[in-house]
Amino acid sequence: MDISKNILFVCVENAGRSQMAEAFFKKFAKNRFNVISAGTSPSFAINPMVVSVMAEIGIDLKNQQPQLLSSSMIENSKKTINMGCVDKESCPSLFVKSVDDWNVEDPKGKSIDDVRKIRDQIKNDVLNLLDSLENDV
Question: Is the overall model pTM greater than 0.85, yes or no?
C-alpha cells in the first residue's frame, strides 16, 4: 500500500462534512489518491440534508455508511484532515501529528441553505488540497 496516496477526512459522526469531503475528493482526484472518511463516534446514517444537497450537484451519497475512525487509518494516511472537531475528547485525531484542521461548521440541524454553503466551502477546500498535493509530487 502506498501511504503517500492515502487521504483521510475525519469528523465526529462521519455523517456530513467528512462524507462530503470524501465524495468531492473522489470526484476531483480521479483515482490519483485513495480517500476515506471516518468518525470518532459515527452516526447510524448519513445526514439526509447532506444527501440532498450533494444530489443537487450530481453526487450520490445514499449508499454511504458512517464508519469508525481507527488508529491504523491515521497511521496509514499521508494526510489527515480534521473537518472541525473541537476538543481532544470528541476528536482525538485533532491532536496527532500532521493533521490539517479545516474548522468546517457542522451541517447537523442547519437549514438547507446553510448546508449548501457548507457543501460549497468543502468543495473549495478539497480543490485547494488537491492543488497542494499535486504541487508536492
Answer: yes
